[in-house]
Amino acid sequence: MKIFLDTANLDEIKKANATGLLDGVTTNPTLISREKLCFTDQVREISQVTNGPVCLEVISSKAEDIIPEAETLVKLIGKALIKIPAGEEGLKAVTALTAKNIPTVVTLCFSPLQALLAAKAGATYIAPFIGRLDDIGVDSTKIVEQMIQVLHNYNFSTKIIVASVRSPLQVLKMALLGADIVTLPYKVFSMLNTHPLTDIGLEKFISDWEKFNKATNTTTNKNIKE
Ligand code: E4P
User: Fold this and answer.
1) So where are the chain's domains?
2) What is the pLDDT of residues 10-48, one digit of tens each?
């Protein structure tokens, strides 16, 4: 499973990237606006910090405007994946951009039928928003399972970037389904590698080692003879 970070915050991206586990970054207009920085500088810096692709979302709503906007974003950073909202105009633009070999992510995707149409239009990725589905009482696991089934049935190459993730349990459910990518807020990313039993166990190892040091006058385990 690839892991993207769902943020435009440079410090968070740097911290996640330092783990060696980061495969890319997703942004959206809300995340970009939170940083209150110059868009072009911010996006260039993000692209320098991460090795993987960076998802940038279009603001235009008509296909004829989405297409040149997408081209501008790709010129800004070569590794941009262009996020385009699901819907008629969006899919028209996806069809045109696919013909130009510009990679797209159909975002705001909430149903398996939207996924089917996005795949038919040639979307490189689709982004189901699972947190927002769960918020309104819809079982997002079922929806993503159906999306995977539909893509598989027709042998589409379109991959899934699971978005709007709020908890480690959601990440586990998506991993069990075999989702290609999850994009995570930094908080959820860091929670994946923490467990209270790890902390308790580590504390005990350290304190037992310190007691042993005192009793035997050993300072570190570097005293081991090779
Ligand atoms: C990412 O690509 C989406 O824009 C994002 O995950 C949405 O998350 P939210 O539902 O928490 O705003």
Assistant:
1) 2-194, 196-226
2) 999 999 999 999 999 999 999 999 999 899 999 999 999
The Cα–Cα gap between 162 and 119 comes to 15
Q: What is the pLDDT of residues 63-81, one digit of tens each?
A: 999 999 999 999 999 999 9
Supply 65's token pair. Answer: 């405007």
The CATH superfamily label for domain 2-194 reads Aldolase class I (3.20.20.70)
Take residue 114 and report the two structure tokens written for it.
């939207």
Q: Whose CA is nearest to atom 8 of ligand 1?
A: 164
Helix (H, G, I), strand (E, B) or coil at 19: coil
- Taking the CA of residue 55 as reference, the ligand 1 atom at the shortest distance is 2
Probe ligand 1: pick from 4, 6, 104, 181, max atoms within 8 Å of CB? 6
